[in-house]
């Protein structure tokens, strides 16, 4: 495990974008696992800049996102599909058909979870998975619980996650109470993992990286992964 501390959010974003860019240069048809939240916005901005400079070509890249809220369609500004289009996909030469986000609006969410898990497998799995982390240690939307959920599944969000994420919604009541997310097993199958977070997450990161490996702190499972880089920035 590599742990890098940067002085600024911009520095963290450049480092993270360089790692992702390096993956794209090494393997132009790679599969990138992507995340949402405020932490990766700067990373995506830097990737767009590097694309505009002609350094990166996304024409053969495929992406799979970690999670999506249930009940929001892709054109809802609070959906993760919208977030990804807005911050990254609309600004690079990726084929939109190669960008994948679980369908939180599916009538049969259980079937959608099985489909998404199988789909990731069918394209050869994730080469590099970008992650953020919740204050309670959640990764994707794997909330603290008594076991590590293996595959893509639907979850009930905890009050603390709903509260934290409500800052992005007009009203707290608008925050969906459920989400569909890659499981811990899905995430752990990625070849490489890159976790980025601001200073406000220092305590939960320490607990995750140096504490007991337990599903009560979902990110603690990363201690068992062979190739994890964590970048923490001082200011956001
Ligand atoms: N589902 C996402 C997570 O994948 C993300 O890691 C977390 C932290 O977000 P932020 O980076 O805004 O702190 O937010 C949401 O809950």
TrEMBL record:
<dbReference type="InterPro" id="IPR004547">
    <property type="entry name" value="Glucosamine6P_isomerase"/>
</dbReference>
<protein>
    <recommendedName>
        <fullName>Glucosamine-6-phosphate deaminase</fullName>
        <ecNumber>3.5.99.6</ecNumber>
    </recommendedName>
</protein>
<dbReference type="InterPro" id="IPR037171">
    <property type="entry name" value="NagB/RpiA_transferase-like"/>
</dbReference>
<dbReference type="Pfam" id="PF01182">
    <property type="entry name" value="Glucosamine_iso"/>
</dbReference>
<feature type="domain" description="Glucosamine/galactosamine-6-phosphate isomerase">
    <location>
        <begin position="29"/>
        <end position="227"/>
    </location>
</feature>
<dbReference type="InterPro" id="IPR018321">
    <property type="entry name" value="Glucosamine6P_isomerase_CS"/>
</dbReference>
<keyword id="KW-0378">Hydrolase</keyword>
<dbReference type="GO" id="GO:0004342">
    <property type="term" value="F:glucosamine-6-phosphate deaminase activity"/>
</dbReference>
<dbReference type="InterPro" id="IPR006148">
    <property type="entry name" value="Glc/Gal-6P_isomerase"/>
</dbReference>
<keyword id="KW-0119">Carbohydrate metabolism</keyword>
């Amino acid at each position: 495990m590599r742990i890098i501390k940067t002085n600024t959010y911009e520095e963290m974003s450049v480092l993270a974008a360089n790692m992702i860019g390096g993956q794209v240069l090494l393997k132009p048809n790679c599969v990138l696992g992507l995340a949402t939240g405020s932490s990766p916005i700067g990373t995506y901005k830097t990737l767009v800049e590097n694309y505009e400079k002609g350094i990166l070509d996304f024409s053969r890249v495929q992406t799979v996102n970690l999670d999506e809220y249930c009940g929001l369609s892709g054109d809802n500004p609070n959906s993760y599909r919208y977030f990804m289009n807005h911050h990254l996909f609309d600004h690079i030469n990726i084929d939109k058909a190669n960008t994948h986000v679980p369908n939180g609006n599916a009538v049969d969410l259980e079937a959608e979870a099985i489909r998404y898990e199988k789909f990731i497998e069918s394209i050869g799995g994730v080469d590099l998975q970008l992650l953020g982390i919740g204050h309670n240690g959640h990764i994707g939307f794997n909330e603290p619980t008594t076991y590590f959920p293996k595959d893509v599944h639907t979850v009930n969000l905890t009050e603390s996650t709903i509260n934290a994420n409500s800052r992005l919604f007009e009203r707290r009541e608008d925050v969906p109470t459920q989400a569909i997310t890659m499981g811990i097993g899905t995430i752990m199958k990625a070849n490489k993992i890159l976790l980025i977070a601001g200073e406000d997450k220092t305590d939960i990161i320490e607990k995750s990286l140096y504490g007991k490996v337990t599903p009560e702190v979902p990110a603690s499972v990363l201690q068992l992964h062979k190739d994890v880089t964590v970048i923490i920035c001082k200011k956001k």
